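Let's sit down with a protein and look at its sequence and fold side by side. Please make up or recall a protein chain and show it to me in full. Label the sequence line and the structure token line clearly, so we can match residues to local backbone shapes. Go ahead whenever you are ready, and we will take it from there.
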Amino acid sequence: MLKKAANFLKLGVIFAGKAGKNLALMLKYIFSGHCNYQVFLQESKTLIFNCISPIFMIAIALGIVMAVQLGPEFVSRGLANQLGLLTSITMTRELIPVVGALMIATQYGTGIAAEIANMKITEQVDALMVLKVDPIYYLAVPRFLAAICFTPLVIFLGDLVAILASFTTLRLREDIRLTGLLNNIQNYFEMDDIWFCLLKSSIFGAVIVLTAITIGLDVKGGAKEVGKATTSTVILSFIFVVFIDYIITSIYL
């Protein structure tokens, strides 16, 4: 048991070192203004179009479930208008950023890991190095920037859809006037909550892409390892997102 724990800790330290090295190189290129902007635009489109639909669907489901679960309880206690504030804060601060990040990990992060892992085992990454093209510059930086810039956009749109779905359900099931819900939000909901959502989303996107890139570039062996790389990306991304969410939320609150 102790031996397994020691091996797990050792692998974690090695992965952290590789991820830290990749992050340092990416930041070096970014702050020096070096980026393949054509790849950046392509990856931005890929992230948006691959992730927007799943995030919208899960956002609608969460909004409806929250309204169905909490609506009768709040209405019976005369607190119907408070549901607007509760729904908005819950969706904006926690539910949509975290669940949306998990969807991005499965839809976009796994694609990055599989693509780079396939390039690694087919020696395309080695070919780039022979041509004196740094794989971090060519493969990692555009995807990293795309995640930082457009993950907040996708998450924010998902947040709006979730709130709209929740309010629509409350109106249809409990006959709650939307003006009361909106007035409650206007009085108590703060812009800091939106900025908090955007900041968390950007960090989550960066962590997911960094994880996928580090795993993809570290692949050795045959085609079987590509599948393992995608699985590892999803698992580690889930762990990192939840852990980082706990840290950020603790600091914010």
The chain has a mean pLDDT of 86. The chain has eight helices and no strands.
